[in-house]
Amino acid sequence: MAPKPRPNTTNGSQAAPSGERREHLYKILVIGELGTGKTSIIKRYVHQFFSQHYRATIGVDFALKVLNWDANTIIRLQLWDIAGQERFGNMTRVYYKEAVGAFIVFDVSRQATFDAVVKWKNDLDGKVQLPDGSPIPCILLANKCDQQKEGIVNQPAKMDEYCKEKGFAGWFETSAKENINIEEAARSLVNKILLNDKLLQSNDGKDGEKFSLDHKIANGENSRANGSKSCAC
């Protein structure tokens, strides 16, 4: 299968004056073991469609979801469907680049896919970070919840504890087949991404103010350097 052209992966926001529409483009990774339903989740979310007969993803695939978030905000989610067999390879560093959020997916009916979750999380955290160096927000999806469940997914309190310990932003039981919690999980992740965006923009503003002050001092623009009277307050 020929590789698909790589789309523009620039993330971020286009600032707009108050009252005008703002647009955001965010790259989100969908990763996890082979056969956990990553492609099915994306198809359900983007196209409201489910099929039992997807071929295994080879390499990486892409999908775009456009959200009218509110009256003034359009969000474009670039969803990267990364093949399970690509796990922990050198190429994942390329695939992960510039991502601002992620889903890690496991199959509730196959314990081995849950056992691999921590490896995916460590690989993710080691290869991509936010501009301030912190991990990108990642939500754990316990997929195929319409089937018989194995392991601690049957104990929500233990799942909460596991996610807190491993640094997940949260977890959802999902079913692409029955359309359970797909929209809710995506909305939760986008909320976390938007919050990070605001925090980073706020910090950038403070850095800009600090630079301006340092620049003035360096150029002798403070009152003492210019020989004028100053207040020691």
Automatic annotation (TrEMBL):
It is a lipid-anchor. InterPro entries: P-loop_NTPase (IPR027417), Rab29/Rab38/Rab32 (IPR030697), Small_GTP-bd (IPR005225), Small_GTPase (IPR001806). SUPFAM superfamilies: P-loop containing nucleoside triphosphate hydrolases. Keywords: GTP-binding, Lipoprotein, Membrane, Nucleotide-binding, Prenylation. Pfam families: Ras (PF00071). One of its GO terms (molecular function) is GTP binding. It comes from the Eukaryota. Its main location: membrane. GO terms for cellular component: late endosome; lysosome; membrane; phagocytic vesicle; trans-Golgi network. It is found in: Membrane. GO terms for biological process: endosome to lysosome transport; phagosome-lysosome fusion. Belongs to the small GTPase superfamily. Rab family. The small GTPases Rab are key regulators in vesicle trafficking. This is Ras-related protein Rab. The lineage of its organism: Eukaryota, Metazoa, Ecdysozoa, Arthropoda, Hexapoda.
